[in-house]
Design goal:
This protein is mainly alpha-helical. It has helices spanning 26-54, 60-65, 67-88, 121-124, 173-176, 235-242, 255-271, 276-289, 292-312, 335-353, 360-368, and strands at 214-215, 248-249. Helix content is 41%, strand content 1%. The chain binds a DNA duplex (15 and 15 nucleotides) through helix 7, helix 8, helix 9, helix 10 and helix 11. Keywords: Activator, DNA-binding, Nucleus, Repressor, Transcription, Transcription regulation, Wnt signaling pathway.
DNA sequence: AGCCCTTTGAAGGCC
DNA sequence: GGCCTTCAAAGGGCT
């Protein structure tokens, strides 16, 4: 198993090493990249705005009018934001060998009505929270309060599955100590956020530690009906409750996913876009435009997420969610459906290899922003 | 209702 | 070890 082969150290993030970008002329390239990103974002935005204008968006014209300034403002803000982060993390993970603990501690009140941890947060609270918040807030539920140096609920030997061994990582308490004033930019909308404390019974880890990675088998985590104790059972779910199913433990988010969670709202606000596919494209490009240090922040976060996940669910394997087809909305897909999906994907790939049917979005991409969009 | 699209990264299986 | 596949989030679009 890969985990085993990681050398047994506490570095579960062996794979979190930074992607080696071109070293040659890197700075220049980075600058060009940023400049390009601006241009490119403008292209994408304007094409998308045009498109939405056509499709009767009443704000589209106004958006386009304020387009240039807005974009400029956003990029500046973005840089300031990142600068701020860098400053906050000065002496952080790459300067200090022993990572002193993350400055992640502004605890947003998850119970505030406007908090983006609300079920509808991603739809409504488009402008907010990301600033001044840090993704690691999501780790708060696993602070010292829950984690004693040797969690009593964790067996010394985690291996329960044959061939599965998820080693016990080092004392995490150091990671989750709460340095005074250590306020990062935590987005409460990120997966492992304090609101997970409100998880219903199905979101409760057997150890008693609630975890957002555990979602009811009936649906996507993002629906978050368990939020703030305001959970009201939809009929369908009430039905399903009759036949108890195993709670779903989701994969921990990787660095890019964490980045997306944090930045999505910003991009949506700035670009007046909602289509996730387009947003994700922009985010993907921005991700590449980040400096190594900036990316490192997210790799580190992701590493910690994995560590926690591993400690909480030592026997969990990513494979667990494969055949169950648990990522679907219904969450109750049959193996047959899963097989179908697999086949479809294979066929799709074959199609693309043989110049088969292309997605509408791919077509749109090429029409909207020809060569530039695909660069970086 | 449920899948698709789109992104990157992690993990697991297969050869 | 390299390659391939699946899943993680998100939400509009499409069937």
């Amino acid at each position: 198993m890969p985990q085993l082969s990681s050398g047994g150290g506490d570095d579960l993030g062996a794979n979190d090493e930074m992607i080696a970008f071109k070293d040659e002329g890197e700075q220049e390239e980075k600058i060009q990249e940023n400049a390009f990103t601006e241009r490119d974002l403008a292209d994408l935005k304007s094409s998308l705005v045009n498109e939405s204008e056509i499709s009767q968006s009443p704000n589209a014209a106004a958006v386009r009018r304020g387009h240039q300034g807005e974009q400029r403002g956003f990029l500046d803000k973005h840089r300031e934001h990142l600068d701020g982060v860098s400053k906050q993390q000065d002496g952080g993970m790459y300067k200090t060998p022993a990572y002193p603990g993350y400055p992640f501690l502004m605890l947003p009140d998850p119970y505030l009505p406007n908090s983006s941890v609300s079920p509808s947060s991603n739809k409504v609270s488009v402008v907010q929270q990301s600033h001044g918040m840090h993704p690691l807030t999501s780790l708060l539920p696993y602070s010292n309060e829950h984690f004693s140096p040797s969690p009593p609920h964790l067996p010394t030997d985690m291996s329960q599955k044959t061939g599965v061994h998820r080693h016990q990582s080092q004392d995490l308490s150091g990671y989750y100590s709460l340095p005074p004033g250590g306020v990062g930019q935590i987005t409460p909308s990120m997966g492992w956020s304090p609101h997970s404390l409100m998880l219903g019974p199905s979101g409760m880890h057997p150890t008693g530690i609630p975890h957002p990675a555990i979602v009811p088998p009936t649906g996507k985590q993002e629906h978050e009906q368990y939020d703030r104790g305001m959970y009201v059972k939809p009929q369908v779910e009430a039905k399903r409750e009759k036949e108890p199913k195993k709670p779903v433990i989701k994969k921990p988010l990787n660095a890019f996913m964490l980045y997306m969670k944090e930045m999505r709202a910003k991009v949506i606000a700035e670009c007046t876009l909602k289509e996730s596919a387009a947003i994700n494209q922009i985010l993907g490009r921005r991700w590449h435009a980040l400096t190594r240090e900036e990316q490192a922040k997210y790799y580190e976060l992701a590493r910690k997420e994995r560590q926690l996940h591993m400690q909480l669910y030592p026997t969990w394997s990513a494979r667990d969610n494969y055949e169950a087809g648990l990522s679907g909305v219904a969450g109750a897909k049959s193996k047959a459906d899963w097989g179908k999906k697999k086949r479809r994907k294979r066929e799709k790939q074959q199609d693309s290899n043989t110049g088969g049917k292309r997605s509408a979005f791919a077509t749109f991409k090429e029409e909207a922003a020809p060569a530039q969009l695909l660069q970086i």
